[in-house]
Amino acid sequence: MKINNQRIQLQNIKKKFGNDNVLNSVNLTVNSGEIVGLIGPSGSGKSTTIKILLGMEKADEGEALILEKRMPNRKLLADIGYMAQSDALYESMTARENLRFFGYMKDVAKKELPKEIEYVAEVVDLTNYLDKKVSGYSGGMKRRLSLAIALLAKPKIIILDEPTVGIDPALRLKIWKELAKLRDEGRSILVTTHVMSEAELTDRVALLFEGKIIAFDKPKKLEDEYKVNNIEEVFLKVEGE
Ligand SMILES: Nc1ncnc2c1ncn2[C@@H]1O[C@H](COP(=O)(O)OP(=O)(O)OP(=O)(O)O)[C@@H](O)[C@H]1O
Is the minimum distance from the CB of 42 to ligand 1 under 6 angstroms? Predict the structure, then answer.
């Protein structure tokens, strides 16, 4: 029997908006117990890739699968923690009320919920602000709350679109450490970023440029292959070829 370790699969994804080829044969996989980074400059197609994966946009060609199923699929909702690029929060409610609401949506058992909320709030350093209304939150705090919501219910699949934008370096590091821990527990994490230094923290990194994956491998392997010291230099080198 073939054991499929690939929890996320994007095969030959093509997408046009009008006459613009936004994605051109994108192939990407995320295994269990793996953090994959999708990295590329603004407008390279990162969010579009994620939206196609989640069934929020339709690909013109190709196949996008999560746990071998095409999205949207209601049955998979509790298995997926998704953090979008823009926050979708209830501003008139407190952070705790937001977390409670999304916890119910994800079918977290009522008696588990307080513990879950405590854990995700701790990861993003919001423990002391849980009872404050979201309307009074700063932009960075809203990002952190969105990330906390994505981590609720310990989903098998975690998909984060630019999770660390507006988050200061110390907390950024803490969040990456937590992602590594979740990875070690067997979860599959796909994270987009345009911060090249964050690529070093992933297990495999896909470099997206003008809708094409121009390289996809372990960061260290890419650096060795291109004889450079970091992913930014790999990017510049591949891009120049
Ligand atoms: N709904 C849409 N209609 C038309 N064009 C779109 C639409 N969504 C995205 N695009 C275009 O597709 C391209 C890729 O956008 P996308 O948001 O996927 O890039 P990105 O890599 O996520 O960028 P950023 O880091 O700035 O968010 C851009 O040129 C964008 O203008």
Answer: yes
ipTM of the complex: 0.96
List the residue whose alpha carbon is closest to atom 7 of ligand 1.
17
Closest ligand 1 atom to residue 49 Cα is: 18
Instruction: With beta carbons less than 8 A apart as the criterion, state whether 28 and 46 touch.
Output: no
Please give the CATH topology (third level) of the domain spanning 6-240. Answer: Rossmann fold (3.40.50)
Give pLDDT tens digits for 15-56: 999 999 999 999 999 999 999 999 998 899 999 999 999 999
Testing ligand 1's pocket by substitution, the residue of 20, 47, 207 carrying the most ligand atoms inside 8 A of its CB is 47
Note the pLDDT tens digit of each residue in 137-182.
999 999 999 999 999 998 999 999 999 888 888 889 989 999 999 9
Which atom of ligand 1 lies at the shortest distance from residue 51's CA? 18
**Per-domain residue ranges of the chain:** 6-240
Asked if 210 and 241 touch (Cβ cutoff 8 Å), the reply is no
The torsion angles phi and psi of 206, rounded to 5 degrees, stand at -105, 125
Give the three-class secondary structure for 7.
strand
Q: Is the CB of 16 under 6 A from ligand 1?
A: no
